[in-house]
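Blinded run. Sample ID left blank on purpose so nobody reads anything into the name before looking at the predicted structure. Input follows.
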Amino acid sequence: MIDFIGAVLIGLTAGIASGVAGIGGGVVMVPGMVFLLSMEQHVAQGTSLFAIVFTAISGTRVNVKNSRVDLRSAVIIGAIGAATSFGAALLANQLDGDLLRRLFGVLLLFSGSRMALNSWRTRS
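Blinded prediction complete.
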């Protein structure tokens, strides 16, 4: 039963973060699944990618309805992202789980630091 409750909490947090902040749910889902559900890094990342499909569809509906989507950019970014993600997923499957977790952590630290710095610069 605890896994179900943990999954619900992760889904709620990811949905709120995605809808309010526009961040990919993986930022919340992957660490949540690793720490709360004790998933291996590879499984957490794969599960997150599958789950993001549903949050992306939901958020996209609202944003398209409110004319907040640049379709040309979305198609270009999406097509290139889809093409490169296949190869990157194959590469990730070859990496050790601990290394993959460290790389994911570095990516989160880098992204979070850039966002924080940019928000402080715009305040000044």
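Unblinding after everyone has recorded impressions. Residues 64 and 71 are 9 Å apart (CA to CA).
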